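Rotation project, supervised by the postdoc (A.L.). Task for the rotation student: set up a whole-complex structure prediction and record inputs and outputs verbatim in this book. Inputs entered:
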Amino acid sequence: MGVSKLAPKLFLAAAGAVGTCCVLKILYARTYKPKQPKGYKKQQPLSDQSSNPPRSPSTDCTRDAFREKKIPTDLDYVVIGTGMGSLYCAALLAKAGKKCLLIEQHYVAGGCTHSFEDHGYEFDTGLHYVGRMEKYKKLLDLVSTNVKVDWAKMGCEEDGYCYDEIKLGDDKPYKIRAGEEAFVSDLIEEFPDEAEAVREYVRLCKRVNKKADMYFYGKLFSPWIQYLLNKLVNKEYFEFASKSTWDVVCQLTSNKRLRGILCGQFGDYGLKPQDSSFLIQAGITAHYLGGAFYPIGGSQMISKALIPTIEAAGGRVLVSCRVKTIDVDGR
Amino acid sequence: MRERATTKLTSPLLHSIKKYIKNCASLRFARRSGSAVGVTVTNVDKSGQNKGEGIAIRAKGVVSGAGAVATNYLVPSEFRELLGFEPMLQKVKSSISHGERAKRASLEVEENTSLC
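Outputs recorded:
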């Protein structure tokens, strides 16, 4: 049986399995009542609280210091940490009407998207640019209802929205411009004899990236369906994931400078091309093919856009607060 | 009382993401050792030292290490080292479940975390 014939059946089976799991989970949630943990009676400050004061408008939402009186009542979830994973997870829960409290031990929320000022200069701690903004802006806008983040395209019209410069030895820097056409034509102009290798590289990057999408979609299903999908549909993904970037590029071309330029974006993921999987290189190349973007106002704007959504659902993001223990019911 | 946001999840994409987060955050360990029902926290002063006594906060669930769990969930275990995620995961995990600070604070995140 071909993969195309098998796929609908697999998806039907997956849908059935997911549906059954959901019904069982709902039944379990309705019948099960968690017991209170040991020592709960000794520490119950929340029972005395009747109000949930909102954050003062003058307080920066990313620097709202922890105070006992600021803890919202009737919490649905406590989220530890305020990195992008936690903030986005809490914002999604808030969109579903859940009240979340986010706790951060640092004095600023945002994790790797937080920024700070020193001697009049602003420094980012993690994010430097983001690609595929037409896709990721939608994801961010879904959960940032009150404040929207505006993104500026890196570079300018005159330089073709150049977002990366690769300098090899004493050669003049090679500029990578936004857009697939510009990416290919610039490389062919620089290396006229390697036109086929350049085209094949871009084609490979796009193909591997598509396969990666399929692999990640498979994560929505149960492990045995994932296993089947990996065996039937994602073979190529695993094949390229196990090859190093350097091996793939060396197979395409023997031109040392072209190899260097193609692998030059390794700085975005931090591993040498000899040590990195081609999967991550293909992901980075395809991710930035359309150009790179930066949030106007700095990377802190991302957390500033997500926090109001959490607060609109009655939640709060409190900093300078450390979790000592996670309390578990007595089962 | 402020109005609570009750926007329904109409977008299939958003629904998928929510499901994904639920999948990756509801760790199987929670079933073995019980569900997390709250946390005990302390204030931290500017030098990073704990200040004051512990305060218990109760909720229906606790989400911890969302980024680490998501990365752990997304990246195939056999390629983590090759993809460069292994050192990152070790670093994140150590600060949550295996590191000295975590031991001192009696955190058992891996076994206790749940989103239920």
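Student's summary: The radius of gyration of chain A is 25 Å.
Supervisor addendum: Chain A has two domains: 40-150+295-318, 155-291.
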